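Regression report. Comparing outputs from two consecutive submissions.

Submission 1:
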Amino acid sequence: MTMLTEIPNIIIFGESGSGKSSVVNMLVGRPVAKTSSGVRGCTFDSCAYDVDVLGQPMKLWDTAGLDEGETGRIPHSKSVVNLYKLVLDLGSNGVSLLMFVTRPRFKDSTLKNWKLFHEIICQKKVPSVIIITGLELEEDRDEWWWKNRSELAEDYGITPDDHACITAVRGKSLRNGTHMFDEEFETSKERVQWVMRSRFSDPWRVSPPQWCQTIFKSTSETRWCGLRPPKTVVTEEEVIGEAFQQLIETGMSEEDVEELVEKFREAEQTRTD
């Protein structure tokens, strides 16, 4: 396994209610992230926790839950922009792993969130793993992955570098002082740690995606009814870039994409690095 002298940054993200906070608490070893069974998640930008993962110190960045927009078409823009700003602010320290936490039942926003951060913002250059929570009642949790991985790849385009199908809660207390899912919880923790330890890489230092690009056009103007050589006129035109087009391909409207890209550009101008 790789051992880095610099502490690698691990970003964990997911929708509100995905079990992300429970995974953070599992890895930290104490309840540091607020969990909620309500519709809305906790409101914050990001929090960093130092964790030891099988002998490798890591910095785990917990992020605000990604909610769907009011129309159900795009993630909550504030959470999305804050996560993008975090990636920018990590600057020279870079990002070594993305951890995407989700429930077994996927929504359209699940695909959008995955594509937005893994494919567009991080440009497929950061190793990414998927953590499936809420499998307490499955007799063989890992079997869920083998049954559904083809659908994830073919229908959703989600092809992570690794996975962990887990139980992130201990369950209700029993009379003997233990909890209903203690054993499942401990084996799940071991699995997540192994995935993190084996899949993180040298840090990738983000460079903003190509939202737009400038093209130059040359035209010739006839002068003096052709009595003089034509004059070449060069004009500039800004057109959508590859990343802008990728956002549209996630199903967002061009209007939504323009609004989101404008906020991304503002974040780029205020980066702390």
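Submission 2:
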Amino acid sequence: MTQSYSEIFSVFQKYMEEEDNLREAIRVIVKEIEQTSREIITLLQGVHKAKGLSQIPTLCQKAREHFLTVKKQYAVLQEKVPIDEYYRYHEHWRFVTQRLVFSAAFIVYLESGKLLEREEAAKFLGISANPTDQFHVELDDYLLGLLLLADELTRFSLNCATYGDYSRPVQISEFVSEMNVGFRLLNLKNDLLRKKFDGLKYNLKKVEEVVYDLSIRGLKPNGESISVSQT
């Protein structure tokens, strides 16, 4: 044996220390991203207030400005993660990425009524949508972010009806219905995704109930249809 046991294990110890230091550096950056994410979510929560509907353009613009900070933070994070070791450390930032995808999806919906595409989500974060690239938006993170959007839209639908915006709940119902159809096409193997998808079906029923309540009260705008979910 050319090396003693102490020499062999000292190499292991050095490797473990370097690994711990790297993970700590990643955690520090992720905490900064999480703080920015909370600030974005706090801004967007303003749409649920009594005067929030009239402030949607302003709130979305301010939230977009915060995403400029997010891009810089993800750029720093990318520099820390060793090449070809994305999945080794992915657990550190996957949850905040899901929340940021949700926030981006909420912004896009509020601005245009459209679904955030994966490529667009990647642009919000300043990273790639291509899974072959070193640092990218993982598909599961994107899908979970969309499912978080369904949760938020359910609440938003009820608040819109409360504040007298009777068209928006119908639009939300149709949007969530289309999301439900889309997710039904997927063979979900991720346990968390399957569980969240069950929540999507519940959210669809809730938003349809809001529209139905408006209908029987004579408050649903003429020409609007009621989406009916399939179970």
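Expected: both submissions complete independently.
Actual: both completed, but the second showed a warning that disappeared on reload.
Relevant detail on submission 2: Residues 225-231 have pLDDT under 50 and may be disordered.
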